[in-house]
Specification:
The chain is built from 9 helices and 9 strands. The protein has a single domain, classed as NAD(P)-binding Rossmann-like Domain (Rossmann fold, 3-Layer(aba) Sandwich), CATH 3.40.50.720. The chain is globular. It is of the alpha/beta class. Helix 3 packs parallel to helix 4 and helix 4 runs parallel beside helix 5. Helix 4 links the parallel strand 4 and strand 5. Bound molecules: NADP nicotinamide-adenine-dinucleotide phosphate. NADP nicotinamide-adenine-dinucleotide phosphate binds next to helix 1 and helix 6.
Length: 255
């Protein structure tokens, strides 16, 4: 794989799953990694294993739902690691949000972490990247953001929001030397998907997903959408007329 050009990166949601795999692989490529999430013990364990393998890592715990805490963690990591040239906003929360018993509180919780949390991390690194005229911002969205899926409307809305937010930032930032990459994975085997009882086709492991994501990042891609079969399915689903979708979705796409 092409070597990542970043020297220092921050990965949010690094205590588990895709984020931990991304941090480990980046460190293996010689990138200094800043790790953040809520579970400090998990972050410290990962940082220790990175250091034991000869890499460099710093940790700063924060709740992504708390903008001020996120800003503080990003600032601390940047002080410890030096200028950050890659942010991977990966922290995410999956919650079911059924139509019957609909709860605005659940929507708020999911949007706070998945969308506002990513925005807070971006706000933390962006001034430095713009001042240097160099950097890359990556958001881990989801193919679930392509359409509102029954039972997961809050999660889908948060991911559609994240993709749209990053797309809106991309043209202005690109002209100023900061690349924006939106990642839309399908199913990846992590604690998030292990918690689900539903059929999850074309599942891949977190290390494979992280390798695909890092390859796209190194190439400066605008989008990294994978795996191909889930992408094809979700593209089809996205363009189904509403009348067909309403009949099909509760039987086939309900989560
Ligand atoms: N697995 C999939 O199939 C899949 C598919 C598409 C997209 N994604 C996205 O990929 C990203 C990583 O998910 P994953 O599958 O690796 O799940 P995971 O293993 O559950 O990891 C989620 C990460 O997000 C962090 N996080 C959650 N809530 C947080 C909060 N309030 N504040 C700070 N950090 C928080 C968790 O850390 P703490 O609990 O320690 O805070 C953890 O490190 C998510 O954005 C997810 O939506 C996953």
């Amino acid at each position: 794989m092409k070597r990542n050009r970043a020297r220092s990166a921050i990965v949010t949601g690094a205590s588990s799953g895709i984020g931990a795999a991304l941090a480990r692989q980046l460190a293996g490529q010689g990138v200094r990694v800043g790790l953040t999430a809520r579970r400090l013990d998990r972050l410290e364990g990962l940082a220790e294993s990175i250091r034991a393998a000869g890499g460099e890592a710093a940790v700063a715990p924060a709740d992504a739902a708390d903008r001020r805490a996120t800003a503080g963690a990003i600032a601390r990591l940047e002080r410890e690691l030096g200028p950050i040239d890659l942010l991977i906003a990966n922290a995410g929360l999956g919650r079911s949000s059924p139509a019957v018993g609909f709860s605005a509180e659940v929507v708020e919780e999911v949007v706070r972490v998945n969308l506002i949390g990513a925005a807070a991390a971006i706000e933390g690194v962006l001034p430095g990247m713009l001042a240097r005229g160099h950097g890359q911002i990556v958001g881990i969205s989801s193919l679930a953001g392509f359409r509102g899926l029954p039972g997961s409307s809050a999660y889908c809305a948060s991911k559609a929001g994240l993709s749209t937010l990053l797309e809106g930032l991309r043209p202005d930032l690109r002209r100023r030397g900061v690349l924006v990459t939106v990642v839309h994975p399908g199913f990846v085997r992590t604690p998030m998907t292990e918690a689900s009882r539903h059929v999850q086709p074309w599942m891949m492991d977190a290390d494979r997903a992280a390798a695909i994501i890092l390859k796209g990042i190194a190439r400066g891609r605008r989008r990294v959408d994978f795996p191909a079969p889930t992408l094809a399915l979700m593209r089809l689903v996205r363009f189904l007329p509403g009348s067909v979708y309403d009949r099909l979705a509760p039987r086939v796409l309900s989560t």
